[in-house]
Specification:
globular
Length: about 190
């Protein structure tokens, strides 16, 4: 399994694969912002919309591959406000149903955490559907539950569900770029 950070060109080259992971996640019931059924073309359009934030450094996207097949992805969204340079949001951690249960979700999570720390981020936050399988991953990885917001978002079937907010403090790494985490000198537009 290889996890790599995608630059804008790489993201554009694998839009269809990213769309396949997204549609599989939605079809599998993951509450990642979309309703089922999610059309592949709509998923591809959504990923194309991530190209500009990736190019400007406001979004970092990693893809996990097993050979030629993409099996998962995770992203970090960096705020553009001067008072929030110390934090980032973990978004769209998705593992294809065929690859679940083998530690890929944890690998993607650890990759994003290490990359965030390497860029000086000391606080990560996320939200996830309350009582979803993802909650056990975040808790076991040391994330702290901050609270629940009722009726926050519709799950893929359209039913409004609560979301649980989590955060994690990170120890910032030295200024050296952690190439192993795929940081590759994220430009800071802060």
């Amino acid at each position: 399994m290889i996890v790599t950070r995608l630059d804008g060109v790489q993201l554009a080259q694998c839009i269809d694969e990213l769309a396949a992971v997204l549609t599989d996640a939605v079809d599998g019931g993951a509450s990642v912002g979309f309703l089922a059924p999610l059309d592949h073309a709509a998923a591809a359009t959504w990923w194309r919309g991530r190209a500009e934030p990736v190019a400007t450094g406001r979004l970092a996207v990693w893809a996990a591959r097993d050979g030629a097949r993409m099996l998962g992805t995770v992203s970090l969204a960096f705020p553009d406000k001067p008072n929030s340079r110390h934090r980032a949001e973990l978004v769209k951690l998705m593992v294809h149903r065929d690859a679940r249960g083998h530690g890929l979700g944890r690998t993607l999570l650890e990759t994003a955490e290490a990359a965030a720390a390497a860029t000086g981020v000391t606080l990560l936050h996320l939200d996830t559907e309350t009582d979803s399988p993802a909650e056990s991953l975040y808790r076991s990885a040391g994330w702290t539950r901050a609270g629940v917001i009722p009726d926050y978002a519709a799950e893929p079937g359209g039913l409004l569900r609560p979301t649980t907010l989590y955060y994690k403090h990170l120890k910032a790494l030295p200024a050296a770029v952690d190439e192993a985490a795929g940081v590759a000198g994220r430009p800071l537009a802060r």
